[in-house]
Amino acid sequence: MKWPLPGLRRDWRAEALTLPNLLLAVPALTLGAYWLSGEAGLYLAALGLPAAAALLSMSRNGASAATGPWQTPFDIERTRLEEAAERILRDSAETGRTTACILVSIDDFSRMRDRMGMRAAEEILAQIARRLQVGMRRNDTVASFGDGIFGIVLTPTARADLESLMQICARLQKSAADPVLFEGAQLHVSVSAGFSQPDRLPDATGHILVEAAEAALREAHSRGPGTIRAYTEELHRRRVTQSKLIDEVRDALEAGQIRPWFQPQISTDTGRITGFEALARWSHPERGLVPPAEFLPALEAAALLERLGEVILYNSLSALKSWDRAQVEVPSIGVNFSLAELRNPTLVDRIAWELDRFSLAPERLTVEVLENVISESADDSISRNITGLSRLGCRIDLDDFGTGHSSITNIRRFTVSRLKIDRSFVQRVDEDREQQRMVAAILTMAERLDLDTLAEGVETVGEHTMLSQLGCGHVQGYGIGRPMPFEDTIGWLAEHNAKLVAPPDIGRWTG
Hints:
The chain is an alpha/beta fold. It has helices at 12-16, 19-24, 26-61, 73-95, 109-116, 118-135, 162-177, 206-222, 233-254, 292-301, 305-325, 339-343, 347-357, 371-376, 380-392, 408-413, 423-426, 433-448, 461-470, 486-498; strands at 101-106, 141-146, 149-153, 180-182, 185-187, 191-196, 228-230, 258-267, 273-284, 288-290, 333-336, 365-370, 395-401, 418-421, 452-455, 474-476.
């Protein structure tokens, strides 16, 4: 692939002489030395080749302290961009000229790459890169950050105000909107942009200018495709707050403050408990219960979702054993798995080991997978893991059903056991005839596919009754029971089971 941007041209000789690539050749060279010179050659090659490879790589790359021999091309590009910004900012007091940093991102690039393949993704990158270069001035510094993101530092300019930067970003968006030609087909892409200005930063350095543009780009991504955002004081305050929250939530996870709370699921036929769903909750020693919407993004930003999954799974299986010892019947526990966990090639083995560790049958663990994971995923590792967990004996729940676009083929391919009907279909189902038709259609499809069903977000007796009449197998929601810490579950179960002495017959819907 060609890289038309300054500093992005790839030299195969430079790439071949990097230390990792040279080390790959060591085994073959060692074997050749043994054939030619026997054991003496073997020892000499085994000791000398790695050192020689390292020295050659250092010589080829300059081994500068600024870049380091292990930096990726994208790291080097970022450093180049920061250094360009630093030079301009350092000279600004004398020249009176300033700069700005713009980050441009191809929307949904990772998903596009998964769907269309690497060749199409590289062609999209190449064409968008050329358009960015044409759209900027000759001396502007442009670099690739990887994953469809490009960074731009403006050459010294007399004015880099909000209006002019918005116009530059809009012009770049317009140039990117033209179709990308690939093998006779037209591919349409959009880009988002975030930019930062030195006069809006508390301490303007090249590194901070680029970081601030990244924060603005993240804000643009959160607002949807094709968005432009500037770095502001409010964004700065939120960034500082999030940074503190990330540190705090990391400590809280290891200190055991973040644990699963359990929300009951019951049968609409018998009223008996059929399971609990484990939901992550943070009991802060000073702030009390912290909403998941606040701490889950911080855990994701800290790359700790897999660690959270381990904590939730361990405590959930521990809860199952404790219920067994207390001689209360809880058939299964539902645990949500993040995308990072579902991509992990060791997931099935880890789950099997944990179940064996607690001496629990696999069918007592329900793996909850969001519908959009199944409907949008082109990742074979996710498919293999879900299928592997099903073969292990775990049940697979398709969560938030109705909000994604999963096909019947995908439902069968991922060996789904139960559909969890999203709460948006459940609200006012006892009053809204259209809601009843929608739920009835879902239940009919599930019955034809021999799938169990559970309705989420049930809050009233009327909704519970109507769902039972429509034929939904299980219900869950505040109207049944709120999420609770393990310590409260046994008392709740005793109280609930006491109500089942003479359950009312509420019949079935025949309309």
